[in-house]
Design goal:
Length: 107
């Protein structure tokens, strides 16, 4: 990744600025580099947390999207105007069409 840049004041690391590298960087000059003070926990071994968080996020996206779709179809299906299978098919097609044609504007 990118080298971390730190300001060295009297041999101690202070705030981040351009020009002074962390001593762990391969680009660092051993005479002027700033040693990392281990103020933050290393995130290198948090793959399990990343996987669990991704699964929770995907589940939430699915359920929130299902709720929004149900809100749109609920009155038509509930009144008996359209059968559930037809509403799901039309709704799914409409969502696919909207994402395909208008999805470039999202993000």
């Amino acid at each position: 990744g990118r080298p971390r840049l730190l300001l060295v004041v009297g041999g101690m690391s202070s705030t981040c600025v351009a020009g002074v590298f962390d001593c762990a960087s391969p680009l660092a000059d051993p005479d002027t580099c700033a040693p990392y003070n281990a103020a933050y926990i290393s995130q290198e071994h948090n793959l399990g947390l990343l996987v669990v968080a991704s699964m929770v996020a995907a589940f939430m996206c699915f359920t929130i999207g299902a709720n929004d779709s149900a809100n749109a179809w609920g009155s038509t299906v509930g009144s008996g105007a359209v059968p559930l299978s037809v509403a799901v098919t039309l709704g799914g097609f409409g969502e696919w069409l909207g994402a395909t044609l208008l999805g470039y504007g999202v993000s």
